[in-house]
Design brief:
Elements lengths: L7 E10 L2 E10 L2 E11 L13 H7 L6 E3 L8 H24 L1 H4 L7 E2 L2 E6 L3 E4 L3 H8 L6 E2 L15
Helix pairs in contact: 2-4
């Protein structure tokens, strides 16, 4: 399946810390690298620790409310096309890694890898917290991803460990 978008981007993994993965996204225009954005994905909830300037409720709203979302500034840059293309790139990277793991059971064991997470764009609103900019199903379709191999990390009560490839 191919991503159904027209823009070209380069994505680069930058870092991972306390449940957040950071990436760089570079827009390619007429063969030239254009604008660069820093993308931040909240991949897991982070435990509340004292001392913290936020209450537990504010921590959940501001930090853990972003699980399953990708953000950047300004949030208007998180178009459906950019987020779908980013998820397509993540899926292709995940698929390559899964093939390597499955192909070397003597190195990685025989565990079956879980599904690939799909991140929706998110923006923060001071009154309500994190708001999704796209729907999971719409992004999966636009990115040309096989839904049976995708996982929605925003679903309450469903963890990566609970979802495995059949």
């Amino acid at each position: 399946m191919n991503c159904k978008t027209t823009q070209k981007y380069i994505f680069i993994f930058v870092s991972s810390y306390r449940g957040t993965h950071s990436y760089e996204a570079k827009l390619i225009e007429n063969g030239i690298v254009g604008q660069t954005l820093r993308l931040s994905c909240r991949v897991a909830a982070d435990s509340y620790e004292q001392p913290c300037t936020l209450s537990r409720e504010e921590w959940v709203k501001q930090v853990n409310g972003k699980v399953g979302m990708v953000s950047t500034y300004p949030s208007e840059m998180l178009t459906d096309e950019l987020v779908a293309t980013f998820n397509r790139w993540l899926f292709d990277e995940w698929e390559r890694d899964v093939a390597k793991i499955i192909g070397s059971p003597e190195v990685y064991g025989t565990d079956v890898p879980s599904l690939c997470p799909v991140f929706v764009g998110g923006r923060y609103d001071a009154a309500t917290g994190w708001c999704a900019l796209q729907a999971f199903d719409d992004l999966v379709k636009l990115a040309g991803l096989p839904v049976e191999r995708c996982w929605n990390p925003r679903l309450q009560g469903v963890t990566r460990e609970m979802v495995t490839v059949a």
